[in-house]
Design a protein that fits this description.
about 180 residues; mainly alpha; Transcription Elongation Factor S-II, Chain A; about 60% helix
Length: about 180
């Protein structure tokens, strides 16, 4: 590091300051600062991008289950946003805050699939992962996008079902239903 990476250690200092601020923000928050409304809007955008990518191949893959799952997640995020307002109110109990924060954490974990991505089982997150040929560059809905790129319609249909099930499960976790 002294010779090539960060000779003055300025980047190290800045990174430590950023992580310190993150830790303070998390420690002081009544509710974890997770914005699932923004997450839902991004998921909607990603589905639109996939629809555009499919364009003349829409007969091969039905995205309706995925659109429905994202709509369910959007509704759950709206409920969570309203609950966040109640939980951060000073009259909320510690138990209700704990329950809400636990659900926020479990929601993000719900996007993890133990089976991993096709041909890359070590990547478990179904929303974001490095692309198959992109090095470390992130790809959105990587299992589905890769199947579409390869015109593997059976796998694309399978990925739509899988991703829809997982997003629906995350929505259920977010609103507190097991």
């Amino acid at each position: 590091m002294e010779k090539f990476g960060d000779p003055t250690f300025e980047y190290h200092k800045t990174a430590a300051q950023i992580w310190g601020l993150v830790a303070l923000r998390l420690a002081e928050a009544e509710a974890l600062p997770f914005d699932y409304m923004a997450y839902a809007k991004q998921l909607q955008k990603y589905v639109q991008e996939i629809e555009a990518r499919l364009d003349n191949q829409r007969d091969n893959v039905d995205l309706k289950p995925l659109r429905q799952a994202v709509a369910l997640f959007d509704a759950a995020a709206l409920l969570a946003q309203a609950e966040n307002q109640r939980v951060t109110n000073s009259s909320a109990t510690a138990e209700s805050r704990r329950d809400f924060n636990d659900r926020l954490m479990l929601t993000e974990r719900a996007f993890i699939d133990p089976d991993g991505l096709p041909r890359r089982p070590w990547y478990k997150h179904i929303i974001y992962a490095p692309g198959l040929y992109a090095g470390y560059a992130a790809e959105v809905l990587p299992g589905l996008v890769q199947a579409i790129k390869e015109k593997n319609w059976d796998e694309a249909r399978s990925q739509v079902e899988r991703i829809s099930r997982i997003i629906g499960g995350a929505a259920i976790r977010l609103v507190g239903r097991s």
